């Protein structure tokens, strides 16, 4: 966790520091943190009563970026309003060096990670609870998910990204989570979604961004499968049909196979194909 020290809050001890903390990478986020970050793209941001840095020569994009970073600092660190109003914004500027060695001054560089698309291998919302019922969701790097479940989740995530609505979000939750100890099935997606609609909105947002981050990490791990490989060329259904056989059994058995097991196998096949082409 990143620590921010604020001095001068105690009039009797002006040199004393009060420490506040906030996550500095995805895997340090709580459900509340994830929901706050997800809210950047789903709700109108509140007004801030703190002046931004001098921006006469900055572009509108840079001013907006500074605004978002200050909003995130306020929300993620839970700094009280009266303390936040007294912050010296210039004290939050730091010198950073980019990949090519160029130097620049940046506001709150410790928050740059959450201004980008979510990417993490550790599941941050592995379970949710509704009215006493625990629902199990995706594990680290989508462990515990079958190929068929992943296909439904991806379909619903794509739909949610293009035409966001509450009904699709609830169906996605119904695809991602299942009653603890029960096998997953696609017939009850809408039933589970209806039950999970009772979750608070922050948990719903956190669950969606959790899947986005895990899905992106998985695509990076199995790069050959996703970048022009089996998934891109044939889709989930096509991949299931192609992988059915001695390794995973019938088409129905392959649908129920562990997603990571299948992708490991496909990745190895693609690596072998590359090696054969190079040696030809």
Overview of this structure, please?
- The chain is mainly α and 280 residues long.
- It has helices at 31-38, 60-77, 81-84, 147-162, 166-176, 189-196, 201-221, 223-226, 230-243, 251-255, 259-279, and strands at residues 2-7, 17-22, 93-97, 103-107, 127-130, 133-136, 178-179.
- The chain is globular, with a radius of gyration of 23 Å.
- The N and C termini lie far apart (51 Å).
List keywords for this structure.
280 residues; mainly alpha; two-stranded antiparallel sheet; 7 strands
Describe the SSE topology.
Elements: E1 2-7, E2 17-22, H1 31-38, H2 60-77, H3 81-84, E3 93-97, E4 103-107, E5 127-130, E6 133-136, H4 147-162, H5 166-176, E7 178-179, H6 189-196, H7 201-221, H8 223-226, H9 230-243, H10 251-255, H11 259-279
Antiparallel strand pairs: 1-2, 3-4, 5-6, 6-7
Helix pairs in contact: 1-7, 4-5, 5-6, 5-7
Outline the low-pLDDT stretches: 43-58
- Sheet with the most strands: spatial strand order: 5-6-7
- The chain-level structural class is mainly alpha
User: Main sheet?
Assistant: 3 strands, antiparallel
Topology, number of strands: 7
- Taken in chain order, the helices and strands follow as EEHHHEEEEHHEHHHHHH
Give the distance, in angstroms, between the N- and C-terminal Cα atoms. 51 Å
Number of domains: 2
The fraction of residues assigned to DSSP E strands is 5-15%
- Overall mean confidence score, pLDDT: 83
The number of helices is 11
The 3D shape can be described as: globular
Rg for CA atoms = 23 Å
Residues in helices, as a percent range = 40-55%
